[in-house]
Write a structure and sequence with these properties.
Keywords: Metal-binding, Oxidoreductase
Helix content: under 10%
Bound molecules: CU-O-CU linkage, copper (II) ion
Protein name: FtsP/CotA-like multicopper oxidase with cupredoxin domain
Family: Belongs to the multicopper oxidase family.
Strand order of the largest sheet: 13-12-9-15-20-17-18
CATH topology of the largest domain: Immunoglobulin-like
CATH class of the largest domain: Mainly Beta
Strand content: 35-45%
Number of helices: 6
Radius of gyration: 21 Å
Organism: Rossellomorea pakistanensis
Distance between the termini: 33 Å
Shape: globular
CATH architecture of the largest domain: Sandwich
Oligomer: single chain
Length: 421
């Protein structure tokens, strides 16, 4: 970091080998390493330059999920880098503290590249986040957790095509930060867990095996105004949430773990005898609001999600890189209504994502969204039959994608393009 020149990163998409299982090497992809990627740390106001290099033997792109950047820097399918190519992107960080991520986005092969290991995190800090007094000791009481399910063949390799199910890859093996069966050792203190559902198609409902509650402090794109006490939280693919678990208040006589909806263990905890830092979770963390004006805006764009398997569409169409589906003026807030149209079988949840901006959920089926969704979002789960209204504005111009974040649905054309003018 150099305040004059800003901040410079080099991010290389690479092939490598990772010892996920003892004594066996699995072929993987990674950013600046064999598997997954580094945490890129940014601060609001930073001028950032990222040199992106494709060292793979296939096309890729570098997409910054949740980052408010110009379409040219966004890394959508139009920003393809061929093998050996590189590109420098520059942008100013103009959004608030949040946990974002990055992954590839080449047309038709996004799912397989993410499956093989291309994903990393982006942390944005700002004056607010630095002064809130939240746990922020990386790896100690501030832990990134990327949840991904994978299938391995009998040679312990990631075989994407063999792993494909009807609606994407649902794996029988959970990796957290690329690790098999990890255990998290924590002190008796408040610990901040930055959860990312980095899976291609699986949803997770996180809860503590003791039934104790925790607080959620952030959504995809920033802090909630107040911590929200929860017993469980569901994240669909690409959604993030920061939660704080207070290990000083939990009964550690029994084994503690984060479990899934079906009670299967996601992440066991080992609580040491040490009492850690005394962090307080402030009662007020942000000033997110939805204005009366925004509430009164008419719906100007309708998005209808439909289908399953490879029969998925948005507004009855599949992705066409030559077709612009919507246009919107830069800096103008519009209301979009997203509808998940059920089919004869009932339908399925589609996690809907929009590039290049953070938006506000105005309503779910006409009702106010739950408390823990009253904050900036870039991906939202939409239940079959549900109608969700969002208020959305773009700071930059260019062509952006919107799509289902079940990556196989995206690759199968459940994606459209918006031109911001
Ligand atoms: Cu995670 Cu098109 O994005
Ligand atoms: Cu994105
Ligand atoms: Cu979908």
């Amino acid at each position: 970091r150099d305040n004059e020149k800003g901040i410079v990163y080099t991010v290389r998409a690479q092939k490598g080998k990772t010892e996920i299982f003892d004594g066996t090497e699995t072929k993987t992809y990674g950013y600046n390493g064999a598997f997954l990627g580094p945490v890129l740390r940014l601060e609001k106001g930073d001028m950032v330059k990222i040199r992106t290099i494709n060292e793979l033997e296939e096309n890729t792109t570098f997409h910054w999920h949740g980052l408010e950047v110009s379409a040219d820097a966004d890394g959508g399918p139009h920003n393809t880098l061929k093998p050996g190519e590189e590109k420098v992107i520059e942008f100013k960080v103009a959004q608030e503290a949040s946990t974002l991520w990055f992954h590839p986005h080449p047309e038709g092969i996004t799912a397989e590249q993410v499956y093989n290991g291309l994903a990393g995190l982006i942390y944005i800090e700002d004056d607010n986040s630095k002064n809130l007094g939240l746990p922020n000791d990386y790896g100690k009481n501030d832990i990134p957790l990327i949840f991904q399910d994978r299938n391995f063949d009998d040679k312990k390799q990631l075989n994407y095509n063999a792993a494909m199910n009807d609606d994407g890859t649902i794996g029988d093996t959970l990796l957290i930060n690329g690790t098999l069966n990890p255990k998290l050792t924590v002190n008796k203190e408040k610990v901040r867990l930055r959860l990312l559902n980095g899976s291609n198609a699986r949803n997770y409902t996180f809860k503590l095996n003791t039934g104790d509650s925790f607080v959620q402090i952030s959504t995809d794109g920033g802090f909630l105004n107040e911590p929200v006490t929860l017993k469980e939280i569901t994240l669909t693919p690409s959604e993030r949430a920061e939660i704080v678990v207070d290990f000083s208040q939990l009964n550690t006589a029994n084994d503690l773990a984060l479990i899934n909806e079906d009670e299967s263990i996601l992440l066991p905890f080992e609580v040491s005898d040490q009492s850690g830092e005394i962090n307080k979770i402030p009662g007020e963390m942000n000033n997110f609001s939805i204005t009366e004006e925004e509430k009164d805006l008419p719906v100007t764009k309708k998005v209808e999600l439909f289908g399953m398997k490879d029969q998925v569409t948005i507004n009855g169409k599949k992705f066409d890189p030559e077709r612009i589906d919507f246009t919107q003026q830069q800096g103008v807030t519009e209301v979009w209504e997203i509808y998940n149209k059920p089919d004869m079988m009932g339908g399925m949840i589609h996690p809907f994502h929009i590039h290049g901006t953070q938006f506000k959920i105005l309503s779910r089926d006409g009702e106010e969204p739950p408390e823990n969704e009253r904050g900036w979002k870039d991906s939202i789960s939409i239940q079959p039959g549900e109608r969700v209204k969002i208020a959305i504005q773009f700071k930059h111009k260019g062509v952006y994608m919107f799509h289902c974040h079940i990556l196989e649905h995206e690759d199968n054309g459940m994606m459209g393009q918006l031109k911001v003018e």
